[in-house]
């Protein structure tokens, strides 16, 4: 393994980022500069202000301490038929997903999820995939359940998707009997469940498994962003609407797409009232990326070129900062769009991805300070980014 370490504290404290000895790593017209923080002979799967989890050859999983340069081995699958499929940092350790190696003729395929902390790994699911870590690193979202990593409690609410606020409040959608259209719910840490909204259409024809109602909720702790299936004509047509539910319970429609099935975290994101979302503009026959301010002002930041097609050149949103700065990828390039600029401040070739990270200072419930910064992740290399 090789690694280079700059003073890590400066890497995530945005106001101090200007002090780093930065070097340019981008296109000629790139307005952002990057500094290499760490490099590994493998793939970085997740990172935060003080830790990096990475894998070598999909077999060995490492947890690296950015403060002192030490690391520990989380998992070693050398000589087994398993590979590390995914790994995410939790508040206390690492949650990782093992799958049967697709290169080896092993049947039936196995998928298991483990929670590693204090040097010990505990299996928390089998037959499921790790989706994300939410609620300030306290909850693991799996393909069918969510797990409280502190207590081990497993909850299955029959949801389409669950999103956690930092205080443990869950936002999810679930079918309402007897019609089984999907309604929107809130579940507080004390177990109190509130139905926030009933589906607008009670007729429930199925096509590709979709029922009318709400899907894929995301929250910034105050507002809820979700998609709604508003029209379904067998296999010929689905019409999806992207909705925003505000703190005062008013609902705004951001877009209505007959061809695009929004995917949470990929087609839309929300952060601090800012919203980034992809839609299909029928007037120009192109996919576009829009950014909406907390005041409701929408700015179009990207339009796909005329040669794009539905079967190639994918467009995805990678991350969204609390000031509306958005990272997205189209075809083989990844873009960082600073909202004070009229064009991207940085463009890099895939597999590079821009990602935003925050560190919270202060005790829970007290006045807290959030310090954030942008990074660029490219396979086994992590860069600090200054706009």
Automatic annotation (TrEMBL):
Renumbered to this chain, the signal peptide range is 1-26
Q: Which UniProt keywords apply?
A: Signal
Going by the entry's taxonomy, the superkingdom of the source organism is recorded as: Bacteria
Query: What's the name of the protein?
Result: WD40 repeat domain-containing protein
Organism encoding this protein: Paenibacillus glycinis
